[in-house]
Design brief:
Two copies of one chain form a homodimer. By secondary structure, the first copy, chain A, is an alpha+beta fold. Chain A has one domain: Alpha-Beta Plaits. In chain A, about 30% of the residues lie in helices and about 30% in strands. The first copy, chain A, contains three helices and five strands, in the order E-H-E-E-H-E-H-E. In chain A, strands 2-3-1-4 form a four-stranded antiparallel beta sheet. In chain A, a hairpin with a 2-residue loop joins strand 2 and strand 3. Strand 5 of chain A pairs antiparallel with strand 4 of chain B, so a sheet runs across the interface. Chains A, B: InterPro entries: CRISPR_associated_Cas2, Virulence_VapD/CRISPR_Cas2.
């Protein structure tokens, strides 16, 4: 599995809601415009990006930051709590 | 250097502005509530968190996601552009 933190800036509410709805299929909402998601591989990232491109408009900004196990280990909230505690393996 | 992507949810404008102003000392604003920053070490992260705790209120959420060189390499925007291209070494 490949873990990503996804952050987005979207102007229009309708578009923001559709983007959030799509990302919910892949992981958890952490903040208003931030998701932590798990993808099987690069191909699934490409598929997700194509889906989001069909929703996005010219004002939409989306960043996908990869998080390896070590980086997840070192990620934290302001209060020192762990972040990105994705399951290493997703049981289907 | 240690690279982080920092995402925050802040309700009050004044607090959000002060948090952004503080983060600007460490890196670049990427989105409305997202910065990419470089820190020398864990100690500098602790110092930064203490500074931000003095600004934050109970509604403030801040996440610090660590980005190693490999993760930065695999991070991208919706349009496939590179993200987190921090300089490996900061020339003082």
């Amino acid at each position: 599995m490949q873990a990503y933190v996804v952050c987005y800036d979207v102007t229009k509410d309708k578009i923001r809601e559709r983007i959030a709805k799509t990302l919910k299929e892949y992981g958890d909402r952490i903040q208003y415009s931030v998701f932590e998601i798990s993808l099987k591989n690069q191909n699934e990232l490409d598929i997700l990006c194509n889906r989001l491109k069909n929703i996005a408009d010219e004002d939409t900004k989306i960043g996908f930051y990869r998080l390896c196990a070590n980086c997840r280990q070192d990620s934290r909230t302001l209060d020192g709590e762990r972040l990105a505690e994705m399951p290493a393996v997703v049981i289907l």
